[in-house]
Design a protein that fits this description.
With 327 residues, the protein is mainly β. It is built from four helices and 22 strands. It has a 20-stranded antiparallel beta sheet that branches. Strands 16-17 form a two-stranded antiparallel ribbon.
Length: 327
């Protein structure tokens, strides 16, 4: 046990890094500027309710299994988004030199999912969470009167924490962030049509992109090291956008189950993030109901596996100064 002065939550810091194998402590570390965090260890507590001639319901309890889980979120940054991608895409290919590097993130069924090490650095002590799987990664921007930051959020699951020696996070000085002015959405009948940025540009009020591959905890008898395995659900890529109701194209394509190519581009100076899907369909188109409001449409879209593009649903490309996202 330790004693420390009371402190504000904002003094706590988060550091993440890609693991070479689940449970192997990451050697590459990135200090994450968090806006939301709630990762904690969760004990599996058993209660004994056997009757013993008394009125009390519980007469004994024990902790049997452990795992960790919780949310993490913050603004999207040019280097940090790549570290988050390592938890959702199991393959990354890097090209270029110390002029900007280009990192292409893809799903590859022949490669195991990647896990993260997460350090929760607090005045009370430093907790290390290993074998952390990301359930999802959501990017969202919603323009208000003063604009908006592009933010990312995720939920994680992994092993019980261990208490470790304190580390000193080093933040990337001058790392670029992104606002609504840096985000553009392009939609066309095919990939070639995306090149005509004037006609393909969608004037959206808000955009949300969600990557999902949630995991469930898999405990086994005889488990003594608090290191359960995790089973992954099928991977999905989907999103929504809100646009003014200017034409019937979206609902026409929805009823026709039309296939589109979609590209979401985030660009600030030389730093760039791009998401590309070559087989995208609308799943729902809903008009707003406010009587005195300008009518908008909320369009839900899904990225489907495209056999004409190697079975890929979505590919993410990041251009920045990081030399490698390998573990």
């Amino acid at each position: 046990m330790s004693t420390h002065n009371a402190y504000k939550k904002r003094r706590e810091m988060i550091v993440i890094g890609p693991e070479s194998a689940p449970g192997t402590v990451a050697t590459k570390k990135y200090a994450f500027r968090w806006l939301d965090k709630g990762i904690k260890s969760v004990p599996g507590i058993l209660e004994n309710e056997s009757a013993m001639g008394e009125d009390t319901r519980v007469n004994d309890s024990a902790i049997d299994v452990w795992h960790s889980e919780g949310p993490l979120g913050g603004k999207v940054t040019e280097d940090g988004i790549g570290y988050l991608h390592t938890g959702m895409f199991n393959k990354v290919t890097t090209t270029g030199a110390s002029a900007p590097y280009t990192h292409v993130f893809e799903r590859d069924k022949t490669v195991a999912r990647r896990t993260l090490s997460v350090w929760d650095v607090r005045p009370a002590g430093t907790r290390l969470f290993k074998s952390m799987y990301m359930d999802n990664l959501e990017l969202k921007v919603e323009v208000g009167d003063q604009g908006a930051w592009l933010e990312a959020s995720t939920a994680m699951k992994g092993w019980k924490h261990t208490d470790v020696a304190a580390i000193t996070p080093a933040y990337v000085a001058g790392e670029r962030e992104f606002t609504s002015r840096h985000v553009k959405v392009y939609l066309a009948d095919d990939v070639a049509g995306l090149a005509n940025t004037a006609t393909a540009l969608v004037k959206a009020r808000s955009v949300t992109l969600t990557l999902e591959e949630s995991v469930t905890v898999d405990h086994s008898v005889g488990e003594s090291n608090d290191d359960p395995e995790f089973d992954s659900a099928p991977a999905e890529a989907k999103g929504t956008m809100v646009v003014k109701y200017r034409k019937t194209d979206f609902e026409d394509d929805y009823f026709a189950n039309a296939i589109h190519a979609m590209k979401i581009v985030v660009e600030n100076g030389p730093s760039k993030i791009e998401y590309l899907g070559t087989k995208v369909r609308f799943r729902e188109v809903t008009d707003s109901d406010g009587r005195d409001d300008t009518v908008t449409q909320t369009i839900s879209f899904y990225f489907e596996a495209d056999e004409n593009n190697g079975g890929k649903d979505i590919v993410a490309t990041v251009v920045n100064g990081v030399d490698s996202y390998a573990a």
